[in-house]
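Chain A, query sequence.
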Amino acid sequence: LREAGTNNADVLVTLFYLGQLAALAEWVDTGAPRELALAALFGAFLLFTKNEGLALAALNFAGAGVLTVVHRQGKVCWAGWGAAAAGCVLLSLPWLWLLRTIPRWTHDDYPALLAGGALGQNLHRLRTLLPLYGSEVWNRSSWGGLWLLVIFMAALGWRAFGKAGVQLLWLLLAGHIAL
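Chain A, predicted structure.
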């Protein structure tokens, strides 16, 4: 919150991301259609706010889709999930249309960076990057006690792992760390 007044979009991205996560976790648990509508709305807000919102919204919807498959929630859930994902995209179409006309810097051109050819050209770098990434993940000085808190909370609330919403949050945590 200390940067909220500095014209920084990261605070908004975090709030919209949290809203989408909460709505999707609630939907996975209850199946309430209003939660999917909220998830679509927050996903569109993520897309409007920063380029990173595209990846976050897509990963969140993909995680909810995986949980829908795992828990075999039926065609009604698939239809709702598809409608919410489509709604998010439809709400975002004006921004995505405008975005294609804005000049891109190399580090912001995510579609080009995620294209098959670009990924294939950089696979050899994984041998160098993965050990560095692993050492940074386990570096306590950069993360503080966050990992200890996550492990402690997981042990404390182990019974909650039976809930689909909690499974979704853990799945998305792993996906976002891998991003």
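The chain has a mean pLDDT of 78. Residues 74-99 form the longest helix (26 residues).
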